[in-house]
Specification:
Layout: E1 2-7, H1 13-25, E2 29-34, H2 41-53, E3 58-64, H3 69-74, E4 81-86, H4 94-101, E5 110-111, H5 117-128, H6 133-160
Parallel strand pairs: 1-2, 1-3, 3-4, 4-5
Helix pairs in contact: 1-5
Length: about 160
């Protein structure tokens, strides 16, 4: 069970780390790289080729501003690519969001919310759960825990306003 996580700049690291943490919590091997689509395109292509041949099951690509990275990755693989638009420009990530979701037909990139790397990891896990029952069961158990926490919070609100 393997997922690749790639970002365009080390300044993106803090926004990408939550995804890595979630994947590791699920015992998924994570290969993390910092490879700009513009400044390190040859290294990026080599990494994508490695992912195409080493059992990687999904690629999370995080980028801000022009956010070409997820699209460039998707153009070189048929693995699921999950784009994470990052804030950091004057447009607070809207530029990256619009760039990532406007992929040409036939080269899709699944896209999560601005700075939503944690949900990118969960989406990768859900994709992997199709063939990995241990991931599916852990995801189901986590959803039960979320519901229990939400119902506890609801009970506390009801009690407070009785």
């Amino acid at each position: 069970m393997k997922v690749a996580v790639v970002m365009g700049s080390t300044s993106d690291l803090a926004k990408v780390e939550p995804a890595v943490d979630v994947l590791k919590k699920y015992n998924v091997e994570v290969n993390v790289r910092c490879l700009s689509a513009h400044r390190a395109h040859l290294g990026l292509s080599e990494f994508i080729e490695e992912c195409n041949n080493n059992g990687t099951e999904a690629i999370i690509a995080a980028a801000g501003m022009a956010a070409a990275l997820p699209g460039v990755v998707a153009s070189q693989t048929v693995l699921p690519v999950i784009g994470v638009p990052l804030s950091g420009s004057n447009l607070e990530g809207m530029d990256a969001l619009l760039s990532i979701v406007q992929m040409p037909s036939g080269i899709p990139v699944a896209t999560v919310a601005i700075n939503g790397s944690k949900n990118a990891a969960y989406l990768a896990l859900q994709i992997m759960a199709i063939k990995h029952d241990e991931i599916k069961e852990k995801l189901k158990a986590e959803r039960v825990e979320m519901e229990q926490a939400a119902m506890k919070a609801n009970a506390e609100v009801i009690e407070k306003f009785k």
